[in-house]
Specification:
The structure is a homotetramer.
Chain A (H helix, E strand, L loop, with lengths): L4 H17 L9 E7 L2 E5 L13 E4 L15 H10 L5 E5 L2 H9 L3 E5 L16 E7 L5 H14 L5 E4 L3 E6 L2 H23 L4
Parallel strand pairs in A: 6-7
Antiparallel strand pairs in A: 1-2, 1-4, 2-3, 4-8, 5-6, 7-8
């Protein structure tokens, strides 16, 4: 874990390219971060295009979200920091904004429930399809501290969580590495599509 | 802003390739333009394939739409010029013809309304999801001056507009650069898909 | 029009690659032909994979469908020859087997009707959206001469035709060149998707 | 058929890349195998990402599933071996986990029936659309021997089978070569999409 800021920034740049190629961060949506050290978070600068990032578009903030170089981090930095505080093993937080995440967050209220999917085994601690994973849906809010409070209350009550949705906005998910966090994005995306299509597909 | 005609033509060629790769200008549909100077507009020649453009497929017209080289510009040149007259900061107008723009323009009458999308912040002057953006839908007409009159009347009454649909035909959107106009295409396309899928996806 | 057999074969190989890349000729479905001379048709050998064709997979038959080299042409050669007999200007016939052609041919009986699409202008002789184009749907039949008879009767009664569907099987369309025939494939594909989605998308 | 283990491993690596590029093996789902000799099966190591395989991710087991190198093969090895026992001509088994295989396995109980598709001719022994092919759907089970028993009972009763679904999990299909097995994946995928879309698309 002796990776430098540059190493992490490069990994976030690549993650942005992967997400953009899959249509998950349209226009300048989404934001990406990595925890380098307890008091040092690498995060995308506000307003950048996630498919065309360079390492110059990645900046550092401290654990309180204070910029280390005067630039403005992603507006939703507080949501990233909250996850790093709660999950000591989490090193990467990805927020994407796909069509399916947006649609499911607007079609379903409160929570999306996934059951009987073999792919649930993609999440840590799950080794059977015969389980239930819940992704809460929060009402969108431009007031990030107020939104963070609602997320905090939910996570206090539901410690088993691998991602959450913000209505009309997208998904937050995380992991111990960029690779793991991208796996979670891929798994959630698959599950969102399944749930949406099931609602449009009536069994005979 | 000392870009030459060749510079602008090359940008339009690239925009055509981007739009075609995304299925947004099937067959020879769509047209693209850029305002080089108050009296000089670069625009695609009539009937060209937008995915295979070369700079030779881009021609110049004056502010009244008169060809500078004898070739025939896109049949809908009048719709481009109208937008340049109204919006002094607009340098690029893109008309695409995607499946989703076509479908939504035929499924919804008069106007498509977008609300509670974080992605609305992609448009200039919008900084919250808690707003309402309207894209009017005009009945298709091969008589372009008559169609332009209806667009004009709508824009007089609704100054906040970032794009409009023509039924069974596609979207017009614009911006201060090719990059901005493509961002608007991308954002509208995302919103069209969401609205269409919501109509096919019944919430539980 | 002094192109050799090799020239035409190469064009059909490229058309196969284009169609396969777009998912229009899954597995070994589809067949492609070109008329070199009144009594000489280049056509894909039976059972070939249209995405991996080489010019060795293209053979010649005469106007009666008799093989010039002993190999067996596509089972549906008779349907190609029928079109060359009827349309003197037609030099290329493409039969593809896309998901949407298959679906629409199974969802709609007798004929698919397209109205109020700007893209109808992609077909020769159509210069307005305010028209009506019909694509007949024939019941699938492994007995090609019997199927050809039904197509013949339809075309006698409806001279304005740019393509026809066989149920559960796909589309036949044609043109004066590979480029034109591919344009017709692209236009029909767009129209099929629109019509299918409209049936799944309920207007508000 | 003098291919070495390395030859087969390389073919499975390529099959994994093809399946991943088409979204058919998300995250670390799916598994792939080839029978080199009666008592020697090449199979993917447990937990590997099928889109990023190297030949080092392919291991050997004997006909009873015993590892030849101490590594752990895919959890579902027993399902592969069962198919090799039953079908002497089968050299390749592919299990994929696409969106459509997952969805159809959850939307339809017991069996999916395909009729009147020209593409049914892609399967060995079928030479007309006027037939009926059935793909059974088994309830998912982490107990592989118990699941294999149900598959065995079905195959005893229904000898004409080219693939089966596990609910919420995906498809098993097979063939005498990687090429043939991939053709069957492609054909099933096409048929799954058609059947799903028909359920979402109401004929007029």
């Amino acid at each position: 874990m002796q990776r430098t800021f540059e190493d992490w920034a490069l990994e976030l740049v690549k993650a942005g390219q992967i997400l953009y190629a899959q249509g998950m961060v349209p226009v300048t949506s989404g934001n990406l971060s990595a925890r380098l050290a307890p008091d040092s978070i690498a995060i995308t600068v506000s307003g950048t295009h996630k498919g065309h990032l360079t390492t110059a578009d990645i900046m550092q903030v401290d654990a309180a979200g204070v910029s280390r170089d005067g630039r403005r981090p992603s507006a939703e930095t507080g949501l990233h920091l909250q996850l790093y505080r709660r999950f000591p093993d989490t090193h990467v937080v990805l927020h994407h904004h796909s069509l399916y995440a947006t649609l499911i967050s607007q079609s379903i209220q409160d929570r999306v429930v996934f059951e009987n999917y073999e792919l649930l085994k993609a999440f840590p601690g799950i080794d059977t399809h015969a389980t239930r994973l819940e992704a809460p849906v929060f009402v969108n809010d431009q007031d990030i501290p107020r939104l963070a409070e609602k997320v905090e209350a939910y996570m206090d009550a539901h410690p088993r969580i691998h991602g959450y949705l913000i209505s009309g906005h997208g998904l937050y998910t995380w992991g111990d590495s960029v690779e793991t966090a991208l796996k979670h994005v891929e798994a959630f995306e698959f599950l969102f599509k399944c749930e949406l299509m099931k609602r449009g597909v009536s069994p005979p």
